[in-house]
Amino acid sequence: MKIPNQHFQHGVGLIEILVTVVILSVGLLGIASMQTHGLKNNNSALEHSVAVIQSYSIAEAMRVTRTAALEGEFNLGLDEEIATNGIRNLNNASVDNHQTHPFAQASLNDWRSSLRALLGDSATGSVACSGPKCTIIVQWNDGRATAGKDVQNIQVEIYL
């Protein structure tokens, strides 16, 4: 028996499709935001790993010439620059007549160059030895991370 004047819907209406597209768009935007945050934080973790590896590299150079390291030839402040002639320039102002060991000077120059190449132009490092105990600090800008700081540093203590 046939029922007169009843209409049955066949398929999906335009409003249902529009609501589905809006819901999917919001979900995909959320996923894209999570991916962006994840990439930023993974880059920050990579920089932390590079800083640790670089601190170990200068520690190994210090172990190669242990006597020079024990004499303070590797001691270097964060703001201290090393001139190519072996005379240290402290805070870009006063000149100290302390002649560094050639290997120590070359190692520190290479180390600082590597820090700047791998962690950015603002990256720097310091070494402070007091007897056989040495403290190595690597400092760089980590401001691009989600909760990063403009001045991030790690500190590694070693015994020669």
From TrEMBL:
Superkingdom as given in the UniProt entry: Bacteria
Tagged with keyword Transmembrane helix: yes
UniProt keyword annotation of Transmembrane helix present: yes
Keywords attached to this entry: Membrane, Transmembrane, Transmembrane helix
Segments passing through the bilayer: 12-34
InterPro entries documented for this protein: N_methyl_site, Pilus_4_PilV
NCBIfam families: IV_pilin_GFxxxE, type_IV_pilV
Protein name: Type IV pilus modification protein PilV
Biological source species: Thiothrix litoralis
Lineage: Bacteria, Pseudomonadati, Pseudomonadota, Gammaproteobacteria, Thiotrichales
